[in-house]
From TrEMBL:
<keyword id="KW-0862">Zinc</keyword>
<dbReference type="InterPro" id="IPR021190">
    <property type="entry name" value="Pept_M10A"/>
</dbReference>
<keyword id="KW-0645">Protease</keyword>
<feature type="domain" description="Peptidase metallopeptidase">
    <location>
        <begin position="62"/>
        <end position="217"/>
    </location>
</feature>
<keyword id="KW-0378">Hydrolase</keyword>
<keyword id="KW-0732">Signal</keyword>
<keyword id="KW-0479">Metal-binding</keyword>
<dbReference type="InterPro" id="IPR001818">
    <property type="entry name" value="Pept_M10_metallopeptidase"/>
</dbReference>
<feature type="signal peptide">
    <location>
        <begin position="1"/>
        <end position="31"/>
    </location>
</feature>
<dbReference type="InterPro" id="IPR006026">
    <property type="entry name" value="Peptidase_Metallo"/>
</dbReference>
<dbReference type="InterPro" id="IPR024079">
    <property type="entry name" value="MetalloPept_cat_dom_sf"/>
</dbReference>
<protein>
    <recommendedName>
        <fullName>Peptidase metallopeptidase domain-containing protein</fullName>
    </recommendedName>
</protein>
<dbReference type="Pfam" id="PF00413">
    <property type="entry name" value="Peptidase_M10"/>
</dbReference>
């Protein structure tokens, strides 16, 4: 019996060592994509996670900053627009998203220009993989990409449960293009998850404190 038990223990130990090696190799590893690209948004069970892994959040406060103002933004001249959305209303929503951040840091003095490829922050609706709705690049890159094929954007007062609120999503990605990374604060715009149908259209006090710290603490 003792010999059998010993064999069982040895077998269990060998299996543990094999599995342990596998688990170490396969666990999520935090990484930064090239060109300062922030992790894209992963959709899972009705939730959008701004990262490759739902539990991975970059704890750094900042990813860069702008030094010359005013900042310009605009749509790339090649960018299509999501079908079913009124163009003027869509532009108004994007303008509003930038104004929310400007209210916290008036020095941004955002100006929308056309064509947007000459802007500091260039907006492009484009085809992303089916688990991404968008991402923003940190300064001084400034690209902001939003999915046009797999994401149902809403510019209405109340998005449905299968839609993403464009104002909420745009505010989050603009935060990245201004230099902010993620936060654990669920009330913050820069929290990495956004449920379908969720509205998050106002900066939290933490969002305001972080963006002001980034742009004012050096002065």
């Amino acid at each position: 019996m003792a010999i059998k038990f010993c064999h069982q223990m040895n077998g269990a130990l060998i299996m543990f060592l094999v599995l342990q090696s596998f688990l170490v190799e396969c666990r999520p590893v935090k990484s930064e994509p090239p060109h300062n690209q922030d992790q894209g948004q992963r959709k899972s069970n009705g939730t959008t996670v701004d990262g490759l892994y739902s539990l991975e959040i970059n704890h750094n406060l900042y990813g860069g900053k702008w030094y010359n103002f005013p900042l310009t933004y605009g749509f790339d001249s090649t960018s299509p627009m999501p079908s079913g959305l009124n163009y003027e209303n869509l532009i108004s929503v994007i303008d509003e998203a930038f104004q929310k951040w400007q209210a916290a840091v008036p020095e941004f003095a955002f100006q929308r220009i056309y064509p947007g490829e000459y802007a500091d922050i260039t907006i492009l609706f484009t085809t992303l993989s089916n688990d991404l709705y968008g991402y923003g690049y940190y300064p001084p890159d400034g690209r902001l990409h939003l999915d046009i094929d797999h994401t149902y954007w809403s510019i209405e007062s109340y998005p449905t449960q299968n839609q993403h609120d464009l104002l909420s999503g745009a505010m989050h990605e603009i935060g990245h293009t201004l230099g902010l990374m993620h936060t654990w604060n669920r009330d913050a715009v820069m929290y990495p998850t956004l449920d379908y149908g969720m509205i998050k259209r106002e900066l939290s006090q933490e969002d305001i404190d972080r963006i002001q710290s980034l742009y004012y603490d050096d002065y």
